[in-house]
User: What shape does this take?
Amino acid sequence: MKINQVSTASFLDQKPGTSGLRKKVTVFQQAHYLENFVQSIFDSLTIPAGAILVLGGDGRYYNSVAIQTIIKMAAANGFAKVMVGQGGILSTPAASHVIRLYKTFGGLILSASHNPGGKDGDFGIKYNVSNGSPASETITEAVFALSKKITTYKIADLPDVDLNVLGETQFDEFNVSVFNPVMDYADLMATLFDFEAIKSLLASGFKMKFDGMHAVTGPYAKEIFLNRLQASADALMNCDPSEDFGGGHPDPNLTYAEDLVKIMYAGAQSPDFGAASDGDGDRNMILGKGFFVTPSDSLALIAANAKLVQGYEGGIAGVARSMPTSGAVDRVAEQLGIPCFETPTGWKFFGNLMDAGKVTICGEESFGTSSSHVREKDGLWAVLFWLNILAIKRQSVDQIVKRHWVQFGRNVYSRHDYEAIPNDAANSVIAHIHSRFATLPNQVFGGHIVKSCDDFSYTDPIDGSESTKQGIRILFTDGSRIVFRLSGTGTEGATLRVYLEAFEPDSANHHLDAQVALSVMIEIALQISELKARTGRNTPTVIT
Ligand code: G1P
Ligand code: ZN
Assistant: This one.
């Protein structure tokens, strides 16, 4: 096997964000761009003899080109084997599972998650370590540092591998194995959930609709829902993946999953249960007939009902949520007498807690929920969890949520995103709020008294690593809260996220629409931040 050392010049923008490096496809298509970043990842690692690399992605445009390059670079950098999902496909949770199941060294996941795909869309790449978890900030910072001074990369002179044909190809001492990306994952789901119970629910006249958003979960959904759970074919929509996600924006929320939302809000004939997943299969949205379950409530409900589900019937050790996620799950943890951890945004902060056995279930307000069965969030897992709960409770989705609120109170919640605003404007909003830190406490806004404000920071209880500047919190004495954060996943300008929360113990008010119930909080957020004046935006781009 001939190995070439290729001279290159560094790019200075290869800083991984909340979840790997995400850029426009055209940026990745620049000569040496992908290679530089992959080499920087490999250089940050000590690759032992016999190391196996798992490789796959969400099938977006540039996926297969990148895979061929990475296989050759893995060969040149000392990996013994690359396991690549057939067709270059691996959902993010399936990749995490395969990394763990086959005790591999790590994996590269090619995805820009819910960002649009296609020639003019986004591409991304992320490294996951041997426990299946996204690389820690220590690793991603090392990768960024290396990427700024790289001068050469190594690539083997190998022919392309046919990614569509299952089986192994040997090149001297290097092996490429193309494997079925769906089966191991589907088998894992069958151990966690009562497929028989779900099957009888689906056979009882209960109607479900799953929207694959033309993205990676399509093949997984067909195997699980059609083959194993015998759902009728019309239970699935948009389950044929395409390189540009059918021209859509594969983000499962009320704005972008509009086809599904229409079906679920069509009155009496709507299905009983609706769900969607994103580009790489780690996000989920849960809907009932004309009813939206906020991801924060979904997390709380999953934790509260975990004992009903076979994979969790022994109880859960603890829960974790990202800081901007609502405190609904905290109330469940308190009642269960288990710990609840508050981490910065991004899945990489949950891995240590799960490895240490402190946390079983965790989630984020951004449509991510999962458990220690993998080290990523897992869209289909959440959908199956809900179906399993529904199969046992035999109540409607909205009944289950409303009864949960009666028991625990309702954490009314919403996130307002202002996308693609100029960086300067976004930074000025953040700087302005910072400048008010000293004077805000004890001030009264619309009847709410500010208790404290800070910039969230986190010390990992397992390895002691510190993460600072993780979002501004303004906490009120009545438990309401406003959080401001800049996105770490966007590729155009800045995205400012405003997270709003208020606690409503009185069930007489639980029926209120979140935007109505939070209208005073929304006004306060705009007033404190001077957002409209500083960004020129009068309304959010997306409300979830
Ligand atoms: C967003 C979400 C965050 C999630 C990440 C990856 O990151 O807010 O919760 O972990 O995508 O899916 P952000 O763009 O806010 O940095
Ligand atoms: Zn995703």
